[in-house]
């Protein structure tokens, strides 16, 4: 039987098939409210909820009227753009971009002293050497996996974490101010891919998969012996963003997840062959999932059962096959995503090169680590065949799973319990529906599905290709993020959203679970460094200071602004001075952001209400240099500017 034969009948998926005479895009465009959906169905013979014999589609209204607010925050990675994006769901409106590993001219990320410190201080020695060669920053990032901090399995609104595959870093974003506040580069690693915050009792560790295998240490040895390359799984303390320990493993590491009890993390491996080339990586029919026993790893570190590698002092324990710290579960072929069910009972590893997903019962892992289970495959409780290219699975909290099928361009909805029964020999077909998506989905995620509060309302499917879905913008096309109503028995696509390169993954939290501040607090530790410097310069309150301090050839300018004025509009320095401008926005009105752009100096920064930002540059060009406010803040915004006068040395 083919997968298609197994799947229940589906609504028409091509534009020509619509019985209403509308193209499908027009149809959904006119059915923004649930009342119209009902009318449309009654009028035509669209084979959906109008027939009592068929499963009903959800009827949620995805339209968020002008002035109305979304019910979920979405956190979208931005792939090669290196940032994090905040979306409103279900409107799919982009609300904010948060620079993380990229350079950003709007906010001055990579330019201000505050951001440059964050971008630099967590780098490895090799990372610092590279940054030093190019002005103190690494310039690009490749974000894949945003995940929010949890307390006892629920979102707690503290942090978002995100990986950088390109330069092997992970970052923490403070959700109260929506700014990146810590970045750490993982030693002994190339390409940090899967990351996942511990769910219980609270985050806790941030678990990090280092994808590529390399010689350990990577100092010129073993370069022509790929069979000796190894990679590590890393535990990062999310409170300090320090790497606490690493685990050497067999094979590579792709995606990772963890349980709801605080004991296990688990990662997929697609290169158990230790191959350096594609054909070799595909040789075996089974790769594996490696399970990490976190308390045992901590114990091993405590007892000194570790080594260090190269110039890193991070303890590295041995988790290769035969170790008592890990368990290797063979799964078919090249598994990719790994997703824990919201009830905490199972994880699902997605086959990618196998049409199957593998369901593992988490409670059964204990038996293996106790020594009571010899064959790790005994922990597998189901392995349904879903279609071609299963990559990632998400959940509705009602016992159903939704798996993206990359090659089929579909999402398969299937029932976990029925898949388990079928695995035990029952004749149930666990597949409930297959839905065409456009095109080639990677991750999908449902609202709150990475927490125990999965609510089964909305599913977002992130497509790698948009092809013909939008106006042609040339050879580089947007991705296509589709919003799907999963509140009914059948999935229904309600929105196409183009996105710039390339959201791999997203998570969604209820709006009440994320509570950012409206303006900055002057007590924020963000300002600690500049406050300390100001104090040394005799300034106790930056909101009252308009003062220029000369210290040799260093000049520190403390300035305030309130719409539409800078309170220093004429600044005299000498050619060659190293100038630091610390600017405080004393407006305390919500949304009244100012900025500071020094023309022809490549200097720009944001100052939102009650924020201080600082920047340091060399006044190397004599003459008159205007600085201006680049955020339109007032009717006299154009006039909000001043002169830096650089006198010839
Ligand atoms: Cu599947 Cu990097 Cu999460 Cu992309 S990974 S799809
Ligand atoms: Cu201040 Cu524009």
UniProtKB/TrEMBL annotation:
Predicted to be exported by the Tat system. The position of the signal peptide cleavage has not been experimentally proven. Its cofactor is Cu cation; Ca(2+). It is an enzyme of class 1 (oxidoreductase). PROSITE patterns: TAT. Residues 1-24 are annotated as: Disordered. Cu cation Z2 binds at residues 144, 193. The keyword Acetylation does not apply. Cu cation Z1 binds at residues 336, 392. It comes from the Bacteria. This is Nitrous-oxide reductase. It comes from Thiohalorhabdus methylotrophus.
């Amino acid at each position: 039987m083919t997968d298609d034969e197994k799947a229940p009948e589906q609504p028409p998926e091509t534009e020509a098939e619509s019985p209403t005479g509308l193209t499908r895009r027009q149809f959904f465009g006119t059915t923004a409210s649930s009342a119209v959906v009902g009318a449309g169905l009654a009028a035509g013979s669209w084979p959906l909820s109008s027939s009592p014999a068929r499963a009903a589609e959800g009827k949620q209204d995805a339209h968020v009227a002008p002035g109305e607010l979304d019910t979920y925050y979405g956190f979208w990675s931005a792939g090669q753009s290196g940032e994090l994006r905040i979306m409103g769901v279900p409107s799919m409106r982009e609300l904010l971009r948060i620079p993380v590993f990229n350079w950003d001219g709007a906010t001055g990320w990579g330019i201000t002293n505050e951001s440059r410190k964050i971008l630099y201080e967590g780098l490895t020695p090799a990372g610092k050497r590279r940054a030093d060669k190019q002005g103190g920053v690494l310039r690009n990032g490749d974000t894949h996996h945003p995940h929010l901090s949890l307390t006892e399995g629920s979102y707690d609104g503290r942090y978002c974490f995100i990986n950088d595959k390109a330069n092997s870093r992970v970052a923490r974003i403070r959700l109260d101010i929506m700014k990146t506040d810590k970045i750490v580069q993982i030693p002994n690693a190339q390409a940090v891919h899967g990351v996942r915050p511990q769910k219980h009792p609270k985050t806790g560790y941030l678990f990090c998969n280092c994808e590529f295998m390399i010689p350990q240490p990577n100092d010129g040895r073993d370069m022509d012996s790929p069979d000796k390359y190894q990679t590590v799984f890393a535990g990062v303390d999310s409170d300090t963003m320090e790497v606490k320990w690493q685990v050497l493993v067999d094979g590579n590491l792709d995606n990772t997840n963890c349980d709801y009890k605080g004991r296990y993390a688990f990662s997929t491996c697609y290169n158990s062959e230790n191959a350096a080339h594609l054909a070799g990586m595909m040789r075996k029919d089974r790769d594996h999932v490696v399970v990490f026993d976190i308390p045992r790893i901590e114990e091993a570190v405590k007892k000194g059962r570790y080594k260090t590698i190269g110039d890193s002092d991070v303890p590295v324990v041995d988790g290769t096959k035969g170790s008592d710290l890990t368990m290797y579960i063979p799964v078919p072929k090249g598994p990719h995503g790994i997703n824990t069910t919201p009830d905490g009972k199972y994880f699902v590893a997605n086959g990618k090169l196998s049409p199957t997903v593998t369901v593992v019962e988490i409670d059964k892992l204990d038996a293996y680590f106790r020594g009571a289970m010899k064959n790790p495959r005994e922990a597998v409780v189901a392995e349904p065949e879903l279609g071609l290219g299963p990559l990632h699975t998400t959940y509705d909290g009602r016992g159903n799973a939704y798996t993206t099928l990359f090659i089929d361009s579909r999402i398969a909805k299937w029932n976990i319990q029925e898949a388990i029964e079928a695995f035990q020999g029952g004749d149930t077909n666990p597949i409930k529906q297959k839905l065409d998506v456009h095109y080639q989905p990677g991750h999908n995620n449902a609202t709150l599905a990475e927490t125990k509060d999965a609510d089964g309302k909305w599913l977002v499917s992130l497509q790698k290709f948009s092809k013909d879905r939008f106006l042609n913008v040339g050879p580089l096309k947007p991705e296509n993020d589709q919003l799907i109503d999963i509140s009914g028995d059948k999935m229904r696509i309600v929105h196409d959203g183009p996105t710039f390169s390339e959201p791999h993954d997203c998570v969604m939290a209820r709006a009440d679970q994320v509570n950012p501040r409206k303006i900055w607090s002057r007590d924020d530790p963000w300002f600690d460094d500049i406050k300390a410097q100001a104090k040394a310069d005799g300034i106790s309150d930056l909101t009252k200071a308009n003062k220029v301090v000369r210290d040799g050839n260093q000049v520190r300018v403390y300035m305030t602004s309130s719409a539409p004025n800078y309170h220093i509009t004429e600044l005299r320095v000498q050619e060659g001075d190293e100038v630091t401008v610390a600017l405080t926005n004393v407006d305390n009105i919500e949304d009244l952001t100012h900025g500071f752009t020094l023309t022809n100096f490549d200097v720009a920064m944001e100052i939102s209400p009650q924020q201080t930002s600082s920047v340091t540059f060399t006044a190397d060009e004599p003459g008159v240099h205007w600085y201006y406010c680049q955020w339109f803040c007032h009717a006299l915004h154009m006039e909000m500017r001043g002169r830096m006068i650089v006198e010839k040395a």
